Structures are given as C-alpha cells and as structure tokens.
C-alpha cells in the first residue's frame, strides 16, 4: 500500500467485480440504442476504459473535460467546460461516465448541457457516490460504490494529479492534503 493512504476501501478485485456488474446492467439497458458514452476527464479515464471494454452494444465514445476544483481539495461549485464533445447528441441517448459524484455540480451542469442540445435521454454511471457531500439534487442511475465523506483516491481519482494510478480505492491521509 502507498504510505500516503490511510486505508483501502475497495481492492482491485472488488472494483473489477463491480465494473463487471455495471457493464452487464448497461448492456441490457442500451442494447439497440446506440448511445454516446461520455467519460468526464480526467478522473473517469481509468474507470471508463475498464467499463467500455465490457460493454456489448454499439456506441460512440466522446469525452468532456470539466473543472470545478481549481487546484484545491474542495470543489468551488463553479463548473467550467474545458473540452467539449465532438459528437452531436441530438436525439441520441447519452451515458455520462463519472469517477465520483460529490457535490453534484458537475453532473447537474452536464445534464443541463446535454438536455439543451436535444439528447434523447441522459443517464450517469459513476464508480463512486458520496451523497453526504451533495449540494444539488442529481440522479445517477448506475453507481459502483457509496463512499464516506473522506478524501478518496485511486482508479482515476486524484489529489493534485497524484494517486490516479492506484489499483484500489483508498482514503488519503489527512496530513497529505491539509
């Protein structure tokens, strides 16, 4: 274990088993629908890669890059679109793939953005959900794990660009980010 990690919440086997289950559910849901699958970079990169390999239906992959953290450990609540889609989502199902749902601001921003562009439907698949931090009401249909109000890293989640590559989901020691 990395010495900066206080504890491991979910090991690699647990995460991969949950991704398998999510992929099976999504494959049943999106069979014959041809959605645009939209990972939210950079945090969802690892989760999305593993999930996409397991999906068994026709899809387009695009991505957005957004920021609400502005190099801080706390969300600012303001979401900025840094990289937009290249696909038209008009009359297409959109599946947002997110690493973690925290305050909900990013997801609400993306829901409104894709709705304003005429998406047929919008759903979210997130590896992690931290409902105790929610500031806005959002709905995520597909969740991997619910996590406590701790600083979570691994499987794409980071602190200052570090720890994304950890093969488990862990809690970062408070002394690292305070």
TrEMBL record:
Sequence ranges assigned to domain Phosphoribosyltransferase in this UniProt record: 9-159
Keywords recorded for this protein, A-Z: Cytoplasm, Glycosyltransferase, Magnesium, Metal-binding, Nucleotide-binding, Purine salvage, Transferase
Protein name stated in the entry: Hypoxanthine phosphoribosyltransferase
Family note: Belongs to the purine/pyrimidine phosphoribosyltransferase family.
Organism: Limosilactobacillus ingluviei
Needed cofactors: Mg(2+)
Catalytic activity line of the entry: GMP + diphosphate = guanine + 5-phospho-alpha-D-ribose 1-diphosphate; IMP + diphosphate = hypoxanthine + 5-phospho-alpha-D-ribose 1-diphosphate
Function noted in UniProt: Purine salvage pathway enzyme that catalyzes the transfer of the ribosyl-5-phosphate group from 5-phospho-alpha-D-ribose 1-diphosphate (PRPP) to the N9 position of the 6-oxopurines hypoxanthine and guanine to form the corresponding ribonucleotides IMP (inosine 5'-monophosphate) and GMP (guanosine 5'-monophosphate), with the release of PPi.
